[in-house]
Amino acid sequence: MTASREHFSSRIGFILAAAGSAVGIGNLVGFPVNAAKNGGGAFLVMYAVFVFLICLPVMIAEMAVGRNTAKEPVGAFKSLSQGNKLWGAAGFLGVLTPFMIAVFYMVITVWIFGYIVLTLMGRLDYLASGAGFGEFINSPYLYLALLVVGGIVSFILAAGVKEGIEKAAKTLMPTLFVMLIVMVIFVLTLDNAMTGVHFFLIPDIDKLTPKVINGALSQAFFSLSLGMGILLTYGSYINKQTNIPNSAKLVAITDTGVAFVAGLMILPAVFSFNPEINPSELSDSSVSLIFTFLPKIFLALQASLGYVGASAVATFFFLLVFFAAITSLVSIIEVPVSYLVTEKKHSRKKALGYLTFTAGILTLFATASFGMVSFFTDFTSYAGASKSFFDVIYDVFYDTILPLNGFLLCIFVSYRWRRKQLSEELSIGNKNYKGSWVEKYINFSLGTFIPLIVLLIFINTVATKFFATSLFGL
Ligand code: TRP
Q1: Residue 20 near ligand 1, beta carbon < 6 Å
Q2: Residue 457 CB contacts under 8 Å (≥ 6 apart), including other chains
Q3: Per the domain annotation, does 89 fall within a domain?
Q4: How many domains does the chain divide into?
Q5: Of the four, 89, 114, 377, 455, which is 20 to 30 A from 269 by CA?
Q6: Per-residue confidence band for 1, with pLDDT thresholds at 50, 70 and 90
Q7: pTM
């Protein structure tokens, strides 16, 4: 371990930082709506099983590789494979992926910031009007917002692991929990709130089609920050006293818990707005839900709270989402930062400078993908649909490469690094690990069915996204 590598100051700091990474925009809106549409309680139970039996071992393995090598993905894969070039390339994919995901996530976070400003300025009625969003995403003011959000993220990252990432997580995450609970309590007092809770919780097993099952597993995988190199990098900042399996379990519980509680906020709100709605009518896209549908719900609150009150609730909600997004952005940009610092020996400030510049330019292009510049808007086409620059980044990196990275990690840990070493690493800080059933389960699953399942998801995504066919005939 290099003497100069910074560490999280406490276990709780690490857990909050990792949970901050995992809890994002998808937990707060995408997950609840998906669950309500696709089987309610039955979906929730299935999702929880996926989180604990399939995703958790991958999370634990990522953290173990990080702590063992005290490096980011490229350095870690290289050092544990004795400099093998192909594994080095797999590690590089683990740095490129978060870099590209940061670009599209930045665009959405900038929009959220824009919504905070506009609701504060009293423009909720504009955002709730059908035309609002279409105009908003082409506004030149977005570039100003990009500067602000980029500035906040760089500011946190420049302060380092302990003073930046950990401090931000320790401030923002508890704030987020409190805000979420306040929102839930408020929303549950609205008329028809219980109809929403009903759709969220009552199980409907018939809705669990192969497509839904596949979607739930991919969502669990993404939601937990797997395959992004983040947990590996954060793992390289923890000390040898930390009990990795336990910490990972808490991260998974927090991420899933926030998604669950968010359901008690979103669905009652949806049903109090329109008691007649059938969840299947709700959009599949988190973007259209957050940016076009929710503002309508907030505006409807003016009947009871007045326009100012309704705007205040909207600002509060977008601030909550913003906090969730900032901690995710910080974590994902830390991966390439750590790569430039560890492998390329740049100073942290210089690494951040490079990344802000390169990712900044790509973000400008992605922001211009919604009509501002036709080259980026009609960037290419595949599977019979025209795709913007933003869509391509999303489809390629978020949807496709993530499961591939997960697959490579499982194979790497099981067959190159070897399970024995994994067990050694995991028993540091956890005396009872060796010989436990947890060890047996992790070692067996990571070398067998988990990579197989993740590989199937990857192949199915490639088939659906790029060739418009599906393994499941759906
Ligand atoms: N849970 C996040 C979401 O739902 C997905 C995610 C996990 C993420 N880690 C991330 C997004 C890091 C961006 C960066 O939005």
Answers
A1: no
A2: 214, 217, 218, 221, 403
A3: yes
A4: 1
A5: 114
A6: very low
A7: 0.95
